[in-house]
Amino acid sequence: MNDFMIKTLVISSHPDYQHSLSQRFFTESAKVPGVKMHFLDNLDDFVLADELAMLSACERLILQFPLYWYNVPAKMKAWIDEVWSAAEIALRGKEIGFAISTGVAAKEFQLGGNEQVTFNEILRPQRMMAQKYQMTVLPLIVLDQLMYKTEAQKRTFVVNYQQLLTMPYPFSFDQKQQWFADRLTRLTEEKPQLIPLLTQLENNHELIQDLDEALASLEE
Predict the structure, then answer these.
(1) Distance (Å) of CA 99 to CA 25, 123, 160, 186
(2) pTM score, two decimals?
(3) Quick check: helix, strand or coil at residue 86?
(4) pLDDT tens across 98-146, in order?
(5) Helix (H) or strand (E) holding 8
(6) SS3 for 11?
(7) Is the CB of residue 64 less than 8 Å from the CB of residue 10?
(8) Of 11, 36, 27, which is closest to residue 146 (Cα–Cα)?
(9) 99: phi then psi, degrees, rounded to nearest 5
């Protein structure tokens, strides 16, 4: 695995996955190297040793779920109840992110919006769980009203989600440039016609670095 990649475990829950366009879109977007998907609703019971082994092996944990009356689905709540208290050694100091879907427009989840609550407030219990284990909480990603998204908006979401899954934190502009370069490098093995695009990206990256150094010297 490339040094730029992060070993990520996605814990996913949806009680009606086959009929959820949003969750299937999430899952397809997550099909990248270094990412393991773990579907809770496929399991009748949780084997604690297996769950802890997966958590121990990952560097980054993502909880992926639809909002169910401002909460996680029942299966994920059951997983939290059974697994989390035993997972401190496996998770302490690691990174955690939340990928949620909602049929309500994201703009409504703010003061003054129709929902009268923010996503951070909704996720407060999960954020406190992470804080208990001194985990780094990554920026939230929200997939809202997928049926109304344009193709360009969908592509942008896929990039943002794949960056959350695989890109080293903090997500700086430099990191994003490197992430795109890494993706293009792997794609050029299958599609050599992309090599000029990779070269252009690398040249732009060097130019930006030169500008940063010039600005830094002027500020000294």
Answers:
(1) 12, 11, 11, 26
(2) 0.81
(3) helix
(4) 999 999 999 999 989 999 999 999 999 999 999 999 999 999 999 999 9
(5) strand 8-12
(6) strand
(7) yes
(8) 27
(9) -120, 110
